[in-house]
Amino acid sequence: MTDFTPPLMHADLGAQRRRMLRAGLTIVAALSLGHRVHAARDGTLRILCSGPAGSIPDLVARAIGDQLPATLGLRALVDNRPGAAGQLSVGALKNAAADGSTLLLAQGAIATVYPFLYSRLGYDAAVDLQPVSLAGEMSLGLAVGPAVPAEVATLADFIAWMRAHPAEANIGSPGTGTLPHLLEAMLFHETGCTWQHIAYPGGPPALTQLLGGQIAALVLPEGLLRQHHASQHIRVLATSGAARSAYLPEVPSFVEQGHPQLVVKEWFAFFAPGGTPKDTLARLSAALQEAIAGPAVLAAFAQAGMTPASSSPPSLAARIAVEQRLWQPMLRAYGIRAD
Asked: Which contiguous run of DSSP H or E holds residue 47?
């Protein structure tokens, strides 16, 4: 005998539809909640870092990450992925779930400069990098070393020295296409100086060469320069903020010395994988902003010559768009490529 269930009456159909609707809403709510709590299943938020241990990006990631248990309720695990101009760290972000369990801390150049610097980039900044929040920013400093005579005491003096000694105007940077390199290009193209750019794999080796007299000058974040400036092993001639830096108040800015367009800040930010839901981005951004505003981060950043800075996802996206419009034509005009 075959079981037979009679057709549902219209009233029963209505009740069933209501039950199905409630069940569907419950499922949608659960999925949405899943985006918010997935990262908390093991109590850990992974922060990919574009720099090696001991670098400035690493300091930023760890200083802020240490505060996230209080602001986000999650323990931060910093995962250093240096190399290939940040492409290794972005590659790891691309492979991460877009559920709020993984963030990337990197220099802003990965979104503003590198898309126009490399003809073959392993990511699409507009697709693979979801802006979450700024983290911090720092001014750059132009420093000269023992290869430059002691009487060169100002930026104008140095420009005059370069013009008189073009064969000795070897200027270092932490890499082709880095903001220090771009600031050098802007300054020396504007002043008509002949110079030889020497790219190093990061700031510390470039600074070692400056201290040893192998290069005449370099541009680096001022936090890397101020100790040696204080000991008079090098001389910082200008800084790149709109006003004098609180960390090197005795050094005039480029603006003060007649170069108003040379306002350049190195900044770092948090990014999420492409496709991360907006509510998850907002939640992460709020927690990061609270952590960045705390006294522990302020103290840690002061040691590195940094200023804490935070933002909402839309305001960070707007900043990226503005800087892309600045750097793209400049890179093209100066013929700067990293390939």
From this structure: strand 44-49
| CATH class for the domain made up of 139-239 | alpha beta
Domain extent listing, the chain: 42-138+266-334, 139-239
Which DSSP letter does residue 81 get? -
E strand or H helix at 271, and its extent?
strand 265-273
Q: For residues 225 and 208, is the Cβ–Cβ distance under 8 A?
A: no
The answer, as to whether pTM is greater than 0.85, is: no
Residue with tokens 């802006």: 131
Q: Is 43 a residue whose pLDDT tops 90?
A: no
Judge contact between 69 and 114, C-beta under 8 A. no
Q: Round to whole Å and give the CA distance between 97 and 94.
A: 8
User: How would CATH label the architecture of 42-138+266-334?
Assistant: 3-Layer(aba) Sandwich (3.40)
pLDDT tens-digit series, residues 6-37: 333 333 434 444 444 444 433 333 333 333 43
- Encoded tokens for 157: 């003096």
